[in-house]
Write a structure and sequence with these properties.
The chain has about 140 residues and is mainly α. The protein is built from four helices and no strands. It is extended.
Length: about 140
Amino acid sequence: MSPLKNRADAVISAISWVTLGVYLLIAASLSLLAIFSFYDVILQVAALIHTEDMTQGVLQVLHALLLTLIIVEILETVTAYFRTNRVLVTPILIAGITAMVRRVLTFGVEPVEPVDIGMTLVAILVLTIAIVFIGRQEHADNY
């Protein structure tokens, strides 16, 4: 083997280790965020008992819970990378749909332009189609 090939392999190996280290730091950060976010859900539920506006309280709990779900889905993407050495797209798309649903929940509470509603619904549709398409492709790849 040539010395140039050996150096290239060493550089590629070093970059791979850096990438794994960054993914590990991201996984640790997301794990902490998920725990803190779920703690916020518990606090929101506790505050729901003393709230005067039950609808607003329930929406706050849902927002906190959906944020926790988004964080967990992104964390699942990172942990799947460790298992498969591939970035899986489906958990990212699911996190995107969850974020859009979270946005839909605010439509009844905040004033929203009809264009924003339409764009959010289009985003949900596109993400759903992408999940179905990628799910079929991943299923075909497994067989």
